[in-house]
Amino acid sequence: MAYTEHLKILEKGVDEWNEWRREHPNFEPNLTEADLSGADLFKADLFKADLFNANLREADLSGAKNLTTERLSKVKTLYKAKLDPELEKQIEEKYPHLLEMLKVEEK
């Protein structure tokens, strides 16, 4: 499960999150299984963030820093998420199932 303190910082907004990331550059934020559906993560610094099984449905990830195809390959869903065009293309090619709507039993 995601570390509650990390989620609280993220809920304060991207500016607060990025400031925290600058102060803790080598820290690995635990966002495992976090429900970030609809989250505004525009320009969020996600360096070393553990996004395993995170729900990023309809999240705005455009301009997110340090976000890779490899890191996104471990999320639960990216259905209707906003991604930078090049990253979206890579996801479509390698992990197209992440862009599809989840089945009822997977929610």
Give a summary of the structure in a few sentences.
The chain is built from four helices and no strands. The protein is mainly alpha-helical and 107 residues long. It has one domain (4-106).
How many distinct domains? 1
Total number of beta strands: 0
Q: With helices defined by DSSP (H or I, 4 residues minimum), what is the helix count?
A: 4
Low-confidence stretches at least 5 residues in length (pLDDT < 50)?
none
Overall mean pLDDT stands at: 93
Regarding quaternary structure, what we see is single chain
Shape: globular
What is the H/E string?
HHHH
From the N-terminal CA to the C-terminal CA, the straight-line distance is 16 Å
- Strand content bin: under 5%
Give me the secondary-structure topology.
Blueprint lengths: L3 H8 L2 H10 L45 H4 L12 H10 L13
Describe the structure.
The chain is mostly helical and 107 residues long. It has one domain. The chain contains four helices and no strands. It is globular, with a radius of gyration of 13 Å. The two termini are 16 Å apart.
